[in-house]
Amino acid sequence: MRADEIDYRIIGDDLQAVIITLDPGEMVQAEAGSMMYMQDGIVLNTTLDPNAQGGGMLGKLFQGAKRALSGDTFFVTTFANAANRRQDVAFSSHFPGKIRPIDLREWGGMIIGQKDSFLCAARGINVTIAFTRRIGAGFFGGEGFILQRIEGDGLAFLHASGTLHEMTLGPGESLRVDTGCIVAMEQHIDYDIQMVPGIKTALFGGEGLFFATLRGPGRVLLQTMPFSRLADRILAAAPHAGRREERVGLGGAVVGGVLGSLLDNNG
Q1: How many CB atoms lie within 10 A of CB 264?
Q2: Is residue 176 part of a domain?
Q3: What gap in Å lies between CA 14 and CA 250, rounded to an integer?
Q4: Cis link prior to 101 (omega < 30° from 0)?
Q5: What angle is formed at CA 11 by the lines to CA 9 and CA 15, rounded to 5 degrees?
Q6: Residue 171, helix vs strand vs coil
Q7: How far apart are CA 129 and CA 149, in angstroms?
Q8: Which of 136, 159, 190, 240 is most buried by its number of CB atoms within 10 A?
């Protein structure tokens, strides 16, 4: 089915949200838990396949299973305008970063994205699984064996951590990228995983054991700060903070005990 023609505006700088204005009868689908607000007349619903036109329950269950494998939810959350006037519904990301509108007609009707990149899209956009061409890319890609395929002829909105950077690769041109920095790419991009050359560099270089090799032609969308990298930094710092608090607490207890003993002796 043809995607709805929706209007939108993006607010914010580093903590962005997208406000989508729906005409009567229009609908958007969104990642679970991403809704910020909705005006009167917007109807929230969950369904197995928002783009289904007929078909049996088995096919809808299969679509839900494919979404679950790609890191999305089994059910799709939809927001339809049942009012007789234009109304707004807004969506925001779960982490600091940017929201990027993608007109799929300008990207050949399809993009391949990491499993956490999808935020919302107009009715008529399909979000399913996309298997990588090589087993190694799945096992060592850092984003899992299954990526998301987003296809249609309308608007989809991606969210990424940090700043978004778009690059265009020519025929045969290649780019080596940290696997967590990939947000999305055109379907013609060849994606593979290579090990960092040299044992010493791999073990002590600080860049991990593997990186992604992207080969053109096509466009690539990258993010500057993968959320997984930020989470690793937080987890690495947390135990040290805990130990510092324990040391301070232990020191306070020791000092308090010494002072208490002196006071008791003087009394």
Answers
A1: 8
A2: no
A3: 40
A4: no
A5: 140
A6: coil
A7: 5
A8: 159
Domain housing 59: 7-162
Put simply, whether the predicted model's pTM sits higher than 0.70 gets the answer yes
> DSSP secondary structure string, 43-89?
EEEEES-TT--S--HHHHHHHHHHHHHTTS-SSEEEEEE-SSS-EEE
List the CATH number of the domain containing 99.
3.60.160.10
Confidence of residue 220 (pLDDT cuts 50, 70, 90): very high
Paired tokens of 108: 């050949």
Whether 73 is covered by a domain: the verdict is: yes
Asked if residue 216 belongs to a domain, the reply is: no
Say which amino acid occupies 129: I
Per-residue pLDDT, 61: 57
Task: Using the predicted structure, report yes or no on whether residue 102 has a pLDDT greater than 70.
Answer: yes
Query: Which letter, b or e, does each residue of 153-163 get, where b requires 16 or more Cβ atoms within 10 Å of its Cβ?
Result: ebbbbbbbbbe
Q: Could you give the CA distance from residue 174 to residue 152 in angstroms, rounded to a whole number?
A: 27
* Beta strand pairing call for 35-38 and 42-47: unpaired
pLDDT tens digits, residue range 5-29?
999 999 998 889 999 999 999 999 9
Cα–Cα dist 249/238, whole Å: 16
Calpha distance 127→148 (Å, rounded): 7
